[in-house]
């Protein structure tokens, strides 16, 4: 039984993925399939809503990494919203905020697709402590 | 920790990782780790078990991963053992995290995460058994002591 689910909805031309539950080495394939579907269908402006995501491991982080360049090359990005502190900590420990636009609210993430603050700079910063 | 050590054996299937996390959360709470310490240890053990399943057993489901927790003074030590392909850290140069990220690699973050989440990481391989020992220090504030 999977303790993870992902569902799709749209806000204008932005595809919002609602993640619920625990994203680990077992459930990462489900998230990967969802992102693959978005990119394959040309929906490259993606917001991942993480307010109901209870847990993430490196397998889940790897899925974000696998698709971010595809989304950017398609004219979009993967932006991440609403992460709970314990989930954000995992992103932060591995320096993912250097590569991903991680914001507090879904509204803010969607708004950033309207032309501001895309975090696509080269990753040359030091690793976090 | 009243019942020490705690032990859990799982089949080498990633579907069992959630079960491991529940067990570690319970052991950590019983040992008096704070919520943040418990979450960190839970994630580190999850990563170690995932490595055992995916690399030790190559994803084959017929192996066993043993998880054991011992409370020693102010630290909780969790040992993850498998009996698959031995892991020798001397043979595996850990790629720099900046390189892994800049190459947008999907894999390679787990060991980095383990090292950042716990206070000490020790690997040991003997015969057909490989183990990683994860030590998490208890800061003593969870129970107000």
- CATH fold annotation of chain B: Heat Shock Protein 90
Per CATH, the architecture of chain A is 2-Layer Sandwich
* Helix-strand string of chain B: EHHEEHHEE
Succession of helices and strands of chain A: EEHEHEHEH
The CATH homologous superfamily name of chain A equals: STAS domain
Shape of chain A: globular
Largest sheet of chain B: 5 strands, antiparallel
User: For the residues shown, what is the average pLDDT of chain B?
Assistant: 89
**Roughly what percent helix of chain A?**
25-40%
Number of helices of chain A: 4
DSSP strand (E) fraction of chain B? 25-35%
CATH topology of chain A: Transcription Regulator spoIIAA
* The CATH homology group name of chain B: Histidine kinase-like ATPase, C-terminal domain
The level 1 CATH classification of chain B is Alpha Beta
Number of strands of chain B: 5
- Helical segment tally of chain B? 4
* Range of helix content of chain B: 25-40%
Tell me the number of structural domains of chain B: 1
CATH architecture annotation of chain B: 2-Layer Sandwich
Gap from first CA to last CA of chain B: 15 Å
Tally the beta strands of chain A. Answer: 5
């Amino acid at each position: 039984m999977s303790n993870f689910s992902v569902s799709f909805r749209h806000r204008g031309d932005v595809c919002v993925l609602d993640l619920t539950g625990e994203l680990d080495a077992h459930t990462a394939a489900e998230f990967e399939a969802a992102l693959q579907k978005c990119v394959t269908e040309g929906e490259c402006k993606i917001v991942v809503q993480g307010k109901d995501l209870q847990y993430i491991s490196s397998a889940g982080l790897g899925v974000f990494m696998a698709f971010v360049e595809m989304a950017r090359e398609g004219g979009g990005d993967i932006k991440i919203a609403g992460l709970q502190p314990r989930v954000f900590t995992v992103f932060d420990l591995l320096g993912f905020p250097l590569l991903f636009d991680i914001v507090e609210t879904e509204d803010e993430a969607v708004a950033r697709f309207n032309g501001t603050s895309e975090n696509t700079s080269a990753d040359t910063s030091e690793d976090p402590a | 920790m009243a019942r020490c050590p705690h032990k859990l054996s799982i089949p080498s299937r990633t579907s069992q990782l959630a079960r491991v996390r529940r067990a570690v959360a319970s052991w950590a709470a019983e040992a008096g780790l704070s919520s943040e310490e418990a979450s960190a240890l839970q994630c580190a053990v999850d990563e170690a078990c995932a490595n055992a399943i995916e690399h030790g057993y190559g994803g084959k489901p017929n192996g066993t991963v043993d998880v054991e927790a011992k409370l020693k003074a102010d630290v909780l030590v969790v040992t993850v053992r498998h009996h698959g392909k031995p892991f020798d850290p001397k043979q595996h140069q850990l790629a720099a995290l900046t390189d892994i990220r800049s190459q947008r690699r999907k894999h390679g973050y787990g060991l980095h995460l383990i090292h950042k989440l716990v206070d000490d990481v020790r690997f040991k391989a003997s015969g057909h058994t490989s183990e990683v020992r994860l030590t998490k220090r208890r800061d003593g504030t969870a129970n107000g002591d």
